[in-house]
Design goal:
By secondary structure, this protein is of the alpha+beta class. The protein is built from two helices and nine strands, in the order ααβββββββββ. Strand 8 and strand 9 form a beta hairpin. The chain starts with a helix and ends in an 8-residue tail after the last strand.
Length: about 160
């Protein structure tokens, strides 16, 4: 039986209406310590993470969390035999705990990265460096933020 004009318009209208329904993905507005741990384990796996060799230069008190300067440096000679493979930066309370992954090599010159980040609230910032011998080194700093960023009001 051929499709009538009325059947076609009904079908087309229902498909169009279904396409206009927004698809909502719910995720927390704030990360949890468990999400921070999972993000770190996603990078390092089961390898032990030692403290030392990594220096995190970030202000301990931040007036505005929208643009926070951050510098991570690692004590490494950056030779062909001994260099930093990557630097990973994490935070505790932003919606996405992995701030950035920076890949380096022996020709990078210095094991140092500088950037600006957004911080949602007073929280821990963790920097982890992976060296050429596949060891992981970290530093953790608590940052106090007076005016938070990364937040949206839900109406």
């Amino acid at each position: 039986m051929p499709t009538t004009r009325r059947q076609f318009l009904t079908l087309a209208g229902s498909v169009t209406f279904a396409g206009t329904i927004p698809i909502l993905t719910l995720r927390p507005l704030e990360a949890t310590p468990a999400m921070l741990t999972a993000a770190i384990r996603n990078v390092v796996g089961e390898a032990p993470v030692r403290t030392g060799k990594v220096k995190l230069d970030i202000p301990p008190l931040v007036e505005n969390g929208n643009t926070v300067p951050l510098t991570v440096s690692v004590a490494s000679p950056m030779t062909a035999d001994d260099y930093v493979k990557s630097i990973h930066v994490f935070n505790e309370k932003n919606p996405q705990p992995n701030i950035g992954n920076f890949h380096l090599g022996p020709s990078s010159g210095r094991a140092q990265i500088s950037t600006r980040i957004r911080l949602a609230d007073t929280q821990k910032v963790v920097a982890i460096a992976r060296l050429s011998d596949d060891t992981f080194w970290q530093v953790t700093t608590e940052i106090v933020v007076t005016l938070a960023a990364c937040t949206e009001e839900m109406n």
